[in-house]
Every structure is written in C-alpha cells, then in structure tokens.
Amino acid sequence: MNRNPLILIIGFLIGIIVILLLFTFQVRKSEVAVVTTFGKPTRPISEPGLKGKLPWPIQRVYKFDQRIQNFEDRPSEGLTRDGFNLFTSVYVG
Questions:
Q1: Which residue of 12, 30, 60, 75 could cross-link 89, Cys pair, CB 3.0 to 4.6 Å?
Q2: Helix/strand/coil for 46
Q3: Phi-psi region at 12: left, alpha or beta (left = phi > 0; alpha = psi -120 to 50)
Q4: Distance from C-alpha of 37 to C-alpha of 62, rounded to nearest angstrom
Q5: Could you read off the pLDDT of 32-48 as tens digits, one per residue?
Q6: Mind listing the pLDDT tens digit for each residue in 2-19?
Q7: What's the rounded Cα separation, in Å, for the pair 26 and 52?
Q8: Which is nearest to 32 in space by CA: 19, 41, 40?
Q9: Calpha distance 54→73 (Å, rounded)
C-alpha cells in the first residue's frame, strides 16, 4: 500500500497541533490564570506567556481579567420621608 507523503505530513502536523492544544495554554498581559488539579487550586499564574498543563480530566485552567472595570450610573435626586433632599450616585469598581 503506497501512501501519499503529503497526506502523512498533513496528518502528522494535525496530530502535533492537537497535542499542543491539550498540553499548553496562553496567559495574556491582562489576565491572571489559576491551574487546578482535580478541582483544587495548585498554582496561580500572573506573568504572560505560553504555559504547560496536563490534559483536561487532570488539570483545568481558569482565567480572570485583571483590568479594573468601572461602572458609574447617572446621579439621581429624591426626597426622604422627612422632606430632606437626597442626592444618590452609584459607583462600582
């Protein structure tokens, strides 16, 4: 059985890509990652780059955004029961 070398090379490259996807993950500059082993946190990762891990049933990676996200609602006015003017503003960071 004579196989085409192009098909073998493409199959080999697809196999390498699948293995890399199973054993590596990327952390960006704006992220923090936590690697868990069997559901228990084992190592926090804060520096960016390509990192290694074991496949899914053993280790899992949770990524969190470390940028500050602000929300500010427009101010509103109201009266209390005593007739005092109440000025409220909501700010969440």
A1: 75
A2: coil
A3: alpha
A4: 11
A5: 999 999 999 999 999 99
A6: 678 899 999 999 999 999
A7: 9
A8: 41
A9: 44
